Amino acid sequence: MNNKTLKMAMAALAVSAATGANAMLTDDEALKAAREVLGRMTLEEKTMMLGGSGTMTLAAIPRVGIMKEWTMSDNSSTVRPAMNRWNWGYVEPKSENTKLPSLSALAQTWDVKWAKKHGEVLGAEMRDRGVDELLGPGVNICRTPLNGRNWEYLGEDPVLAAEMCVPLIKGIQSYDVAATVKHFCLNNQEMARTTVDTHCDDRTLNEIYLPAFRAAVKDADVLCLMTSYNKIDGNWASENKYLQKGLLRDRWGFKGLIVTDWGGQHSTDYAANNGGGVEMHWGQGIKYNYYAISNRFPLAEAVRANKVPAATVDEMALRTLYVMAKTGFLTGAPRRKGERNTKKHQEIAREEAADSIVLLKNEAGVLPIEDDVHSILVIGKNADVKQCGKGCSGEGNVPYEVTLFEAITNRCLDVAVKLMPFCAKVELKKTDTSAAAIAGGHAHQKTSSAYCSEEELKAAADAADVVIVFTGTELGYQENMESESRDRESMNLPKELEAAMHTILGWNHKRLVVVSRSGTPVGYTWVDKAKTLVQTSYLGMEEGNAIVDVLTGKVNPSGKLCQTWPKSYADTAVAQCGTYNATNVVYNERFYVGYRWHDHKQIEPLFPFGFGKSYTTFEYGAVSVTNRKVSVTVTNTGKVKGKEVVQFYAAYPNAKVERCVKELKGFDKVSLKPGETKTVKFNVSPRDLAYWDKFLHRFRTDAGDYEILVGSSSADIRGKATIHIDRDQLFDD
To answer: Most buried in the list 203, 387, 652, 685, measured by CB within 10 Å?
Structure first.
């Protein structure tokens, strides 16, 4: 890019930045700027673009105009506090950022508007912190409920994950920063993640595990992609030529930067020659970090030894420079101004969290909690245990975090509220009605500690108008917790917790509410005894307020499950096919993942994919089709305003090849006042109905009749219609 062109571009960008618009260069402008800098670099300087200068940075090279380090952060729900250069400790004092709900919670909203806002909050807070690249979002499919990292992903269905990740990525990058879609690919377990070799047939790979990545690249123009730790058919994901060159670069046209996970690189010349990119730096002196960049510049040595073409290193470095130019980092172009910890961001965190909460059971109208309540008993220590600082890469440092107990006590100033654990240590609390306490929102102060027996717990429950039991999982490394780098040993909750739930539910309290938190399905051996069950994922800093908003009816629950909840782990495809271990994992269940498996084997789940109740009711009209445009009316037939997620599935009654019973193809979330009717539409394209032809290595749609099923969940189909495809069609991608 010549000086005149660059000045004109920067002038335009200055206007964009001043007005709050996205200031990214066009692809051509970014490539020109990147090539100009590349042309002035030495071979060693080019290799400096391909390895970290610290755990979360790429090097500055002032000689060629890169005046500061490129900075990264690792999270999809917040901007993680800054790390020390050579270890995983945090820089003090820790920076504070808004903590949004987890991605599993975001997926449970089934609302692309929340995905966009989620991304915009992250992008704005990155810019305010001076962070250039977010190492997220994660879009791996939830193949097994044991995966300790399901809470960081967007559910079990490729269409849901794809539809949610596109606005999320666009929202992030609207602030002139880079998003990084991960972990590419077949990263569906944490157990032995750095050594496992995964084997998946080509059809399943393309139909289930690639669509969200494809959408991120082709529809969201994501700037960066992170490879996974695992091998794929014997080749490490970070140096897999088919995936990185044949698929990402050639088939999808990915222009951006490929980065490894930490410790995910295993060679120098082989990785470079097979599509490798930037190696994330684990720490000073770590041996395997020698491969890409060190004081001895092994990649430069490989070039001089004719093991790696110089043009290959040029191409690798150009990708890094392109992303830097695209965001304005390289050129010095004015970038969109950010902000963090604003009231607006906190409101988004709370509202998104509330919209993600799933009402699974509500017999006898226990919920919402009415104003006639004078005493509330909260059971379960997790009701007052903060989660935002847990979860490894999901950790965040926040200005505040509202637990469920705090939210209840702050909301119900005239109600006696008590917190008790599951027959363990208990902190009793009483009402402080002083003006200062009420004004500060802390009307309930800790007064004593004690141990309670089952008898004491029951007596407290009998005396309370409402009992709220808070169960489920936590983030961490103890038994059956959820976390990066380990999987859960089973779907079950700890035995003591399960036993306590059976005991408490056996009391048959008239107004007992069970709230369960987890980012993945857990076993509920007691579910038949519960009249009311509310499911939440990890909801961030506004978790308590969001839950209370739903429990009290301030917000009508509208979340839908993004994963099928089996009755037991034995009912899952992975358990029945025996394809989950520490060495070689074969995806023998093929494309029968989640609800697809339950449909295929006719196994009734505990709760189906896409399920969630409301405080109101919705009636669906007849489904109609005009020129492959499917429409259906939805009416709120209840007494309160509510939101319904209308789901569109495809079925294949005359399929020429093996197909699933049904597959999600689209959805829309609509808000309806009592008595209001709206029409929801879905345009069905031939590509939506395609399958991967393993012989032609292309997507294919056969001529014939297809059914479009419209429903409130995968198991609650309210109507259907037939559409006709008049000819066979092939698609390049």
So the answer is: 387
The pTM (predicted TM-score) of the whole model is 0.93
CATH 2.60.40.10 matches 616-731: yes
Residue 584: partners with Cβ closer than 8 Å, 6 or more residues away: 196, 197, 198, 199
CATH 3.20.20.300 segments of the chain = 3-326
Q: Are strands 512-517 and 466-472 parallel, antiparallel or unpaired?
A: parallel
pLDDT tens digit sequence for 24-35: 789 999 999 999
Q: Tell me where in the chain the CATH 3.40.50.1700 domain(s) lie.
A: 357-559
Q: Where in the chain is the domain with CATH 2.60.40.10?
A: 616-731
Residues contacting 44, CB < 8 A, separation 6+: 297, 300
What is the sign of the dihedral through the CA atoms of 327, 333, 336 and 338? positive
**Set 74, 261, 269, 668: catalytic member:** 261
Selected from 3.40.50.300, 3.40.50.1700, 3.40.50.620, 3.40.50.2300, the CATH number assigned to the domain covering 357-559 reads 3.40.50.1700
pLDDT at residue 443 greater than cutoff 70: no
Residue 481: phi, psi to the nearest 5? -75, 170
Question: In this structure, what DSSP letter does residue 523 have?
Answer: -
CA-based torsion, 440, 390, 182, 259: positive or negative: positive
Residue-wise pLDDT for 379-413, tens only, equals 998 899 999 999 888 899 999 999 999 999 998 76
> Residue 372 catalytic?
no
Dist. CA 149–CA 486, nearest whole Å = 8
Architecture, CATH, for domain 3-326: Alpha-Beta Barrel (3.20)
